[in-house]
Fold:
Amino acid sequence: MDDLHTEDHAMIIRIVDSLGKTSELKILLFALVILIAIGVLQDVTGTRITMAPFYLIPITLVTLRSSRTAGLLTSIVCGVMWISMDVRSPGYFFLWLDAWNNLLRVGVFVSSSLLLSRLKGDMIREMKLNAELQAALAEVHQLSGLLPICAWCKRIRDDEGNWQQIESYITVHSEADFTHGICPDCARKHQRQTLRNLSDTGKIGA
Structure:
């Protein structure tokens, strides 16, 4: 189930990304052609064959490619078009049941547009986060595996066989940099050594 959910999720992202690369005008014209085709079919068949699911096609295309407002307008146009075709059908009587059915269809169209718009926003945010994550990962250099290091001088051998100072090697292969200081133990050690050298050379008194 998780694999199916992941595949569906990835497919939706691909659809949103593909529609985003398509001209908005082309999508609007294509949605208009679909609406005209649905209208012609419904005018021919009347209410004997329901066309309600097909209205979701232009609603989906416009909502995912354009703005939420455009999607809502498309859903309202689809609802009005459905009602007008339903009224023209033979044997139509405007009873409370017919009014309820038409109102329910329009509600489904509008709800679908709102849900698709929210889904589109979530997908766009996820794609942006993924792009930022990939960019961040591309900038990160990680050290891994065994590093051949000299036990005496602490230099590291690179892939080409050259020995580098540990600071230089880590700077090249990671995002780290170095600032040099002296730890307390080394400070005391070298201070005593310095005083001893000065004493041996007679620069300071014993």
